[in-house]
Amino acid sequence: MRISTIALATAGLLSLSAQAAPLLSAEWAGQACQAWNKNPVLTDELAERWIKNDGGRGYKIIHMYRTDCGENTKVELVISGQGGKALCTYGGPIKNTSLNDDMDYVMHAETKRWREMGAGEYGPMRAMMFGRLKFQGPKAEAMRVMGPFEQFLLMPGKVPGDDTCPK
Asked: What is the pLDDT of residues 33-90, one digit of tens each?
């Protein structure tokens, strides 16, 4: 009896350590970066129509956060043009504090809205029209890549993350 109690307690501790990181945390961003690179719509279609607007530096930056957790919880994705693809080369804490509004993006929404977008309940056009997703960046460019961008908004539904606020 005592051995089974210890085994259950150990299993409980192991399952706690295997829980998902908070949604849009630095750890989550690293996992989202890996997921980006496995999605041919993001890597291929954005290579053709989006990544080239990088000001000659070879990459674009996306900052994102959950509005209800605060702007100080922003994370960063760096998307680079490599070998004819738009590849995520970094996902984690903010490294680039200054962005260029002509090529980089800042996106934020309430946790509930990230979840809805991640579940595919609506796409980027509806999210922006109804103010559910706020963003800064080149709006005309964003309009041209709504199709691939929808794949990006599905990430909160594909990359596990819990609803606690990142620290």
From this structure: 999 999 999 999 999 889 999 999 999 999 999 999 999 999 999 999 999 999 999 9
Where is pLDDT greater, at 78 or 7?
78
Are 111 and 163 a contacting pair, CB within 8 Å? yes
Q: What angle do CA 75, 78, 82 make, to 5 degrees?
A: 160
Predicted TM-score of the model (pTM): 0.87
H or E element, residue 95: none
Q: For domain 21-158, give the CATH number.
A: 3.30.1050.10
Pairing of strands 134-136, 75-82: unpaired
Sheet hosting strand 105-109, strand order edge to edge: 85-93, 75-82, 59-66, 105-109, 134-136
Characterize the bridge pairing of strands 85-93 and 59-66: unpaired
Residue 77 phi/psi, 5° resolution? -120, 135
Structural domain boundaries of the chain?
A: 21-158
Q: Which residues pair with 63 in a beta bridge?
A: 76, 106
Residues 6+ positions from 32 with CB-CB distance below 8 Å: 77, 88, 91, 155, 159
Q: Decide: 159 and 31 in contact? Cβ < 8 Å.
A: yes
- Please report, for residues 9, 20, 162, the alpha-carbon distance to residue 12 in angstroms, rounded to integers and kept in the order given: 5, 15, 18
